[in-house]
Amino acid sequence: MSAFEVWADPGFQRDLAGLHAADQAAVQGALAGLAAHPRDHPQTVRLKGSDFPGSFRLRVGRLRLLGLALDRPRVILLTTVFVKKRESDYDQALQRHEARLKAQGPPLGDFVKSAKGGR
Fold first, then answer.
1. Pairing between strand 5-8 and 44-46?
2. Residue 18's Cα: distance from chain center in Å?
3. Read out DSSP for 23-43?
4. Enclosing H/E stretch for 59
5. Chain centroid to CA 51: how far?
6. Are the beta carbons of 35 and 65 closer than 8 angstroms?
7. How far is C-alpha 46 from the geometric centre of its chain's CA atoms?
8. How would residue 117 be classed by pLDDT, with cut points 50, 70 and 90?
């Protein structure tokens, strides 16, 4: 099977741009492994509390990336990246993740809706 395409939400791009260069490089380095095996990657966990099936979080050292993996099309949409300092950081990140997914328009918005069961 071919690798997934990795897309970055504009909010993810802003989050990433606000990080130190070493953290940006770590994220870039992790994306190849994620694209090859998003569900089997050893540092991914299903994102609890998300309305979107296929949502995950990826640990990259002290950073956490949130995204959504869609089988059709084979796309990973990255929504949020942040430095994890405490457990409560996940609450804010989950809110950003959900808002950014809900804001997706065509063509991706159609696939995100189908992943949610047509809601």
1. unpaired
2. 17
3. HHHHHHHHHHHHHH-TTT-TT
4. strand 55-60
5. 14
6. no
7. 11
8. low
